[in-house]
Write a structure and sequence with these properties.
single chain; Metallo-beta-lactamase, Chain A; 33% strand; globular; seven-stranded mixed beta sheet; 211 residues
Length: 211
Amino acid sequence: MPTVFSAGGIEVRKLALGPYDNNCYVLLSKSTGESLIVDAPAEPEQVLAEVAGTQVKALLITHCHFDHILGYETLKKATKAPVWVHRSEAAKLSIPPEHHFEHGERIQFGAATLEALHVPGHTTGGTSLLWNEQLFSGDVLFPNGPGRTRNAKDLDQIIESITGKLFVLPDDTVVYPGHGDGTILGVEKQRFAQFSARPRDPDLHGDVSWV
């Protein structure tokens, strides 16, 4: 069963799917009968059940690691919805996308507007989606740390993305990540302050925790 919450006339349904506990978010506008899908993990039939009877306006892919696109082809063929992904990762999709995210791009959906934030580091095209004070962070920011990085250079880049593009948002912004539970941005700012106050191994990377 999905976790459901509502804000600003939009209902959001969070589904934890597949062997990697991926979060897929379905946004529903009751006033227009439209929906949006954020990411396309395994078990796409569960996503399709949530959007049944709606017009799927777009399929938004935060990044193209395999676990986030296992259900992509099924969702694309079933909904025929236009797909958005960052240009640097578009070639990883089995069916070419119609649109490429640019930083600051706005996607209109019913009475809501989502803003794309390019936040590389976990992947080259990592994109978070901001709607009012709700942030769908993909695999860039989790409770108590950033997404996994392959080397120290990537860790520097993801920290720059987080501090320069996400931590400038209001403290009460709610973060909905690509896996697991959510968090509050102000809490993560405090945790990061503890992390940044400590000496750091120059080769630090991988799964990093703020505290």
